[in-house]
Amino acid sequence: MRVKIDSAGRIVIPKEYRFEYNLRANTEANVLPLADGTGLGLFRLVPKCANCGTEKELSKYEGISLCPSCALKVLRAIER
Ligand SMILES: [Zn+2]
User: Fold this and answer.
1) Which of 65, 70, 75, 79 is geometrically suited to a Cys-Cys bond with 51, CB 3.0 to 4.6 A?
2) pTM of the prediction?
3) What is the CA radius of gyration of the chain?
4) Integer distance in angstroms from the first to the last C-alpha of the chain?
């Protein structure tokens, strides 16, 4: 699908791709060169627990995501 880069360097990701790849407003992603050098890829960032890496039931505090189990471990470590 053809898109045009505006004067600020922005593009509009076509609606079909936003829907297919679950790209919503404020979704964070990396834009990286493809390994074969043929272009750029957009890679959606999936939030993960900063401690164990799980992607489920995360709570975020001051930019750090933790799952309930790891949040409890941190809380217990602080209480000692
Ligand atoms: Zn965790």
Assistant:
1) 70
2) 0.56
3) 18
4) 57
The confidence score (pLDDT) of residue 47 equals 87
In the structure, ligand 1 is a single-atom ion and the residues with CB under 5 Å from it are 49, 51-52, 67, 70
Report pLDDT digits (tens) over 3-49. 999 999 999 999 999 999 889 898 889 999 999 999 999 998 888 99
pLDDT band at 55 (very low <50, low <70, confident <90, very high): very high
Give 51 Cα–ligand 1 centroid separation in angstroms. Answer: 5
Q: How far apart are CA 55 and CA 49, in angstroms?
A: 6
Residue recorded with tokens 């593009």: 11
How many C-beta atoms surround the C-beta of residue 67 within 10 A?
A: 20
What CATH class has 1-45? Answer: mainly beta
